[in-house]
Amino acid sequence: MVPVTEDSNTISDEDYLVLRAKNSLKSDPFEAKAWMITAKTLFPDNFAVQFEAYQIEKAAKNVKEAAKCFSAIFQKFQEEAEMWQEVQALTTSLRSDMAEPDADFLRDMFSQIPLEVQHQLLLMTAEHSEDTMEHCRLLLLLLRRFPQTVPQHGPRLVDTLMTAEKHSHYQNSVNCFRKLLVCDLLPLLGSNSVDLPSKQLFRLLHKSIEFYLCYLMSPSKAIQDLPELESRIEDPWKNLFVIQEATGRKLGWELSAMFGHSWNKDLYWQKITQFHQACASVGDDHPNHKQLLYCITTFFLYCLHEYVTTLDSGGGEVPLVLVEAFCGESEVVSASVSASTSGAGESKVKRRKAEITDESSASTPLLTVARPANMVVVHNFLMAVRCRDLLHSSESLEREFTKLSQHLKLDSWLNGFLIDAALYKGRFDEAQNKIGNITALDTGINGNLRRHLRLASTFYCQGLFARSLEHILQVITLLPSSSMLTSLPSTHQLTNVLLQPSQSNRHLHFLPLTRLQVLQYCIKLLVAALKHQCLSKLQPDSDLAIGHIITLLQFDWPLEEELMTQLMERIRQRGSFSYSLFQNYVVNVDVLEEFMYLSTEQGGGISLDVMPSVQITSQRRISTRGTDKGVKEDFKLAMKRQVARSVEPLDNLIIKFLTSERDLLLQSLE
Amino acid sequence: MSISSSDLKHVLRKTDFPFCARETLVRVEQMCATQNSGRISGAKHVDILMEIISEFVFCEVDRRGSRKRRLNYIQELQLLEVLCDYFTYSGNSSEAVKNSVFMSLFPPTHSDRSRLLIKLVSMASSTKNVPVLTATGIWMQQLGCTSKFSLDLAQGLVKDYFVLIPKAVSGLQDLPQLAPQFTANFLTAVAEMYGVVEKRHIFSPPPDTLLEVITQWVSDNPTLCFAALVVNLQLALPLGGIPMAAITPFAGLFKWCILAPLHYADLSSCSDIPNSNDSLESPLYSCLHLALLESLLECCTPPPEVHHVVASASKNIISAQHLFAIVEPVTRWLKEHMRIDDESVRMRGETAVNKTLDRFAQVIQVGLVTHCVYGNIQELFNQLEMLPENRLLQIVINAHRNL
């Protein structure tokens, strides 16, 4: 049965036993094992025999037995090269999650090895490792598996990682060593009673904030010199909060305890203000000062990040931009709101919410969003504004925060928020300055669109309507394409949210960057400017402005029917109306009917100079005297032709109007 | 208890079977308890016990002491139920008292009751009645696991249980955990039973089902074979009882594994169909052999690694004498085998002998390394020298002779 060959007489006893074991492995694994047991007990100090026993168990996938052999060999024969290879295969498998049979087996085996051997094994491999990264990973593995060793090896590993990062000269703080330090090591240190000097703790906190910020802001979410699989960080803010809480605990910070809770932002804010008030009575140079600075900064960045993410269409939403919107007289708006039923409920909700977030509604602007789901952006914005105000509330805090934000290189992505904050506070020059700064950085299509919208918005606020128009025209060229190109803008999409009745004197809106909504905003901006320029001054020659407004109002008709009624009344009072662009741009049936009515005797027999073609054929103005029936018929026919055009897509018509009639628009805005 | 023997019998006669049996057990227990506390003893006392057990429990004699007809099957079943119930529910009495009741019920003088004992233990095995099994284990050890009483019991159990019931294996799986001492002593007994060398055969192989159960037991419970050594028998015995030394099943079971190749070599050379299933050695022997070796290693690992399951217990695990008793049948078999002229049969025999010797050497090696062999080891080596040459055996002898 067993091929005991002649040469088996010439080989050593050890080899003979191993040979017998191997020979019987296939036919009778039990027999093979019995041979192996015999060999192992006969030659306990022979590596080859012991290692062979391990190989046999491994081949048979006996996790427990293999673990036993492995531990015994590891403790006895660490110098053997073959053993060392096996140790390395084992530690490599421990660090990967690869579902590979060999690695799986080794991982299972490791879990069966006695703890003290596991510990010894990891430590020894780490110390043998020549590659720093490898060394650090192994030590981390050790610390994770044996938390009791953290005080012993943790602080040294912190130093190793920091030195390694320094010597590697990374440009970016999102690199492999930093990731290991911040994401893997610090949480272990935090939960353990490891004492570190406070200077070190500050440095680690800095490094953590910096790392997570850069990570969050990087679009690729890639970590330098780390494989993609390891570069994914599940919940960066939660991680940072854990570090903040733990570091704060070690520094004796009372306020940082709040990061240990998963509260909503209002509760955090409440804690911060309470603490701040308590501090204010103590004075500026108190040690509390530092914790206030770091805790507010972290919370501020948290709100800010969420805010920026929402604006930049994080989570698949439409990107937003904060712009100046409009305040109407309450009764006008409520009338128009009731005209569009879909808008009514929505705007009421918004109004209520906005009032909750704003205590003093008279002095602070009203903030609205296009969809109730976006309300969170208002909340985050206001939180961030408050944090920033608090950080600038005292000279020393401001100084420290400036230092910190320089260190953390916050400026570049703080800018967008600062523009919005300046707009919110009514500091339009400051906003425009900052918009100028941002151009170099933000060149995407949305970046440009946003820039011109912001500029159009701020110039409008400053009463510089002509300059505002320039940017509106830029916006028109940058309008995103829409799948709804051919259909008419319906009231389902466009609401009167841009026009809000408000006790406060200002209204800001988070405008979604969609074709129709941006276009609607531009129109509203122009209408408001035209109204301001012409109607309020009661200029004698306001027909051109009125014509422009009528043209523009068609876009979201009948949202502003009320204004149209006012304009019609004005025309009636003046008794005549002349608008050379009428034939080109006025196509709305309701509007056309209104003009038809004005031209009749019941309507007041207003003299209308709106149809150049009619004028040419008759050489006369249309009158109501009935003397020129032909002219009247021609007018009717011309109006009918206009009605026939009412199916044209309005967005394109308005865009054409804006781009082609720039000079005439400017004329009425100057 | 000042009640006289006749009064006692009078009282007991008032109830019918099986109630009188139940009542008698209570009385027996009381008497054993007083005996245990050392107050009354003596032959008279024992006589009364024996009499009432005979008359009211087993119903062997009538009131005048003359033989009665044997209990019918239903009555037997009732009696077994009474006995099982008694050992299960007599919670108050100590282990020692229960064991002394059990030994009074089945004394060596009443070998005629072994038929009922077999039924009782069968029933206890299938209903997992731990108290009865535990008492049986102690009974076996006190009477000697390799004594005729224990062998009769073992044989009866094997016949009743392992052979008769096809699914016995799964039902008996947890027996080693429930009643380790009983299981160990049972193993010692069956090992002896089938290890006996009969005239023409070198060894009488156990039925496959038994072999299968035993292999599984030993593989799954490395400490099983030591179970009888671990129990402190003194506490389980009545005052003044002398605990009998346990004999582990190792030597007996190893003997099976060592001799099995020779047995099957014989069979295949006699049989017309050499490769039929019956004539091949079951792979279970190889598995059992390994399980026994691992069991020794696991429980008796040499000093530095402290695993002391049995380390502190008596080292009398395998007697050297039991081991060298295996030498004789092997040499005898060889002598007979040499006479065969057929070349192929001789070749097959040689392979079998080598397998036997390999296993034997492995047992010696592991036994010596784990310090489980006791007795005259020098004599063991002398005996081993008489075996034919085998490389492993030589390696093992050299390794240990030099020590």
TrEMBL record, chain A:
Tree of life domain: Eukaryota
One Gene Ontology term from the biological process aspect of the record: snRNA processing
Compartments it resides in: Nucleus
Pfam families: INT10 (PF21045)
CC per GO annotation: integrator complex
Keywords noted in UniProt: Nucleus
ATP-binding in keyword set: no
Coiled coil region boundaries: none
Main subcellular location of this protein, as a coarse class: nucleus
Family classification: Belongs to the Integrator subunit 10 family.
Name assigned to this protein: Integrator complex subunit 10
Naturally occurring in which organism (per UniProt): Zootermopsis nevadensis
From TrEMBL, chain B:
Pfam families: INTS15 (PF14964)
Superkingdom of the source species: Eukaryota
Protein name in UniProt: Uncharacterized protein
Species the sequence originates in: Zootermopsis nevadensis (Dampwood termite)
Taxonomic classification: Eukaryota, Metazoa, Ecdysozoa, Arthropoda, Hexapoda
